[in-house]
């Protein structure tokens, strides 16, 4: 069109060019009509749809696909603009491709949500054009689709599969050397080289005329509670996820592992004025109840009431349990204010206090200061890191187990601690 306009301008001075410009304009008009007929002669030439899972996993890449088929008898070009939920803040999510005549095409991509809740996808906009490329036809599909984002069930399944296949050490979960053995009897079997000779059952050996040993198994039906702080200290974000979401994902994973080990799993949330509990149960289907409850957990900017937590646990949890307390202590003084409550909980339960390393300070700790301001900043970073280590030491002195971990290693380290305590027979 720009060329034709230029020829029209020159045609003012050269009449022959003016006639040529009119012929070109007519030819272009004819091509546009032909192109329009090629695209619009079919009532519904394109079928497209977005294939969403029933739910998305928070903090994990989720597979999503788009399928497109068309009945055009020519090699068509397509542009797909997918309207993603506002939570992703992406406005340029589009795909350009060509499809042969009467062919179906599938496009796959991944989305990683960073917060739980309802996600609404908008329309799927498809722009089709013929080989002439003069006209585009827009079609819209899937006007709106909603899908919930749940705590990380993908991570839960991965750890469950590795627990079943005894491959947990491959993701950093170490094997724990058992100190002695538990007293829960399992069965009598034949002796094999390497068995503890102290487990030989001499009466069974005499009856069978062969060495027989007693086999023991881990004690079962022990209560495991994940206690999550929903106060302002859990609002801190790391790599897109808040500490609360890291704790929720870890709680779901450890609950599933506990149920796999035939223990009872439950969880508690506490804040400034509201507490919630899902009582520990042993049924495998209980994991779905835990998942649904974790889906609705939210935090605020208020400081959590640890005294209320103490009263709540006293009234609701009567059996000695493993308490995995997810919270965060930024300073030594904040921990000391809560230490009397933690000691009281530890006197009735096996308490594991889980809090977080501030990974944002790693670069500061490894940097070389160049001026006085850098020296001051690095000194403050080292002070925070030292206080975290001091918190671990003081809690251990009072008989409270601790996990100081990076947020991304939380699930692995928590499962490590659970397996260690179970192997040592402390639960």
UniProtKB/TrEMBL annotation:
Signal peptide: none annotated. The chain crosses the membrane at residues 12-34. Residues 187-355 form the DUF58 domain. The keyword Signal does not apply. Pfam families: DUF58. The keyword ATP-binding does not apply. SUPFAM superfamilies: vWA-like. Keywords: Membrane, Transmembrane, Transmembrane helix. PANTHER family: BLL2464 PROTEIN (PTHR33608), SLR2013 PROTEIN (PTHR33608:SF3). This is Uncharacterized conserved protein, DUF58 family, contains vWF domain.
């Amino acid at each position: 069109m720009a060329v034709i306009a230029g020829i029209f301008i020159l045609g003012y001075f050269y009449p022959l060019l003016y006639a040529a410009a009119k012929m070109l304009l007519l030819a272009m008009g004819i091509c546009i009509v032909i192109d329009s007929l090629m695209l619009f002669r079919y009532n519904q030439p394109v079928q497209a749809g977005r294939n969403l899972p029933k739910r998305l996993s928070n903090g994990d890449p989720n597979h999503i696909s788009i399928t497109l088929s068309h009945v055009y008898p020519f090699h068509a070009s397509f542009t797909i603009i997918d309207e993603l939920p506002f939570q992703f803040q992406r406005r340029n999510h589009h795909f350009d491709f060509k499809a042969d005549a009467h062919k179906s095409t599938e496009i796959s991509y991944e989305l990683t949500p960073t917060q739980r809740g309802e996600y609404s996808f908008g329309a799927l906009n498809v722009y089709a054009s013929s080989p002439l490329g003069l006209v585009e036809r827009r079609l819209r599909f899937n006007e709106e689709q909603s899908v919930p984002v749940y705590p990380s069930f993908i991570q839960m399944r991965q750890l469950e599969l590795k627990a079943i296949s005894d491959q947990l050490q491959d993701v950093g979960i170490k094997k724990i050397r058992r100190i002695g053995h538990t007293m829960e009897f399992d069965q009598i079997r034949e002796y094999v080289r390497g068995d503890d000779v102290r487990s030989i059952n001499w009466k069974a050996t005499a009856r069978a005329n062969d060495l027989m040993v007693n086999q023991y198994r881990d004690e079962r039906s022990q209560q495991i509670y994940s206690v999550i702080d929903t106060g302002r200290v859990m609002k801190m974000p790391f790599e897109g996820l808040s500490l609360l979401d890291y704790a929720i994902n870890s709680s779901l994973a450890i609950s599933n592992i506990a149920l796999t080990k035939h223990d009872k799993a439950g969880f508690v949330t506490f804040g400034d004025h509201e507490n919630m509990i899902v009582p520990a149960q042993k049924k495998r289907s209980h994991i779905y109840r835990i998942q649904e409850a974790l889906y609705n957990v939210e935090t605020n900017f208020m400081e959590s009431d640890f005294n209320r937590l103490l009263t709540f646990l006293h009234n609701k949890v009567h059996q000695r349990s493993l308490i995995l307390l997810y919270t965060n202590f930024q300073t030594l003084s904040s921990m000391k204010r809560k230490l009397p409550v933690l000691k009281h909980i530890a006197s009735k339960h096996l308490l594991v206090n889980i809090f977080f390393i501030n990974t944002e300070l790693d670069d500061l700790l490894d940097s070389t200061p160049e001026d006085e301001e850098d020296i001051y900043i690095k000194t403050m970073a080292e002070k925070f890191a030292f206080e975290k280590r001091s918190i671990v030491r003081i809690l251990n002195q009072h008989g409270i187990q601790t996990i100081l971990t990076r947020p991304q290693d939380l699930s692995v380290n928590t499962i490590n601690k659970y397996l260690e305590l179970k192997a040592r027979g402390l639960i």
